[in-house]
Amino acid sequence: MDSAFMDEIAQRLAALGVGVVRFEFPYMAERRNGGGKRPPNPQKVLLECWREVYQQVRPLVTGRLAIGGKSMGGRMASLLADELEADALVCLGYPFYAVGKPEKPRVEHLAELKTRTLIVQGERDALGNREAVEGYALSPAIEVSWLVAGDHDLKPLKASGFSHEQHLQAAAEKVAGFLKD
Fold it and tell me: Does domain 4-180 bear CATH number 3.40.50.1820?
């Protein structure tokens, strides 16, 4: 929850008037408490953690509440968005497939998603590049915003003429605009 990416994007969103609540899954909390490198919890545990956080935050928010996250956090949120009746879903660097396994996409639930969704994705993301993702049948509720030559952390190739800071700002502005509409 306090990675450099999350710190940066949360600050940029806050500067644009978007409040951000961050949390970490149990396995990340265990890492923080001296548990070393741990694999992610089973999906069931991750989803239950998301549900608990949502139930704690929802009563504190007046107005609309979007859920989402970076990579796996966004994927877990996407699995719950309709169930939780979230107002919107925002995913940054969505893991459409595991590294090196584009033949095994994790997109079945995205075809039927009803929640209004924004996915900000780098064109050369190793977990969902533009060519692969454009071949998927995604729900009409999903908008994918592509960042030129961006990777999974939205970092562009130097030859693109864009900087990582520019991509992070573009992502924040896209998210803020999406949530205001």
Answer: yes
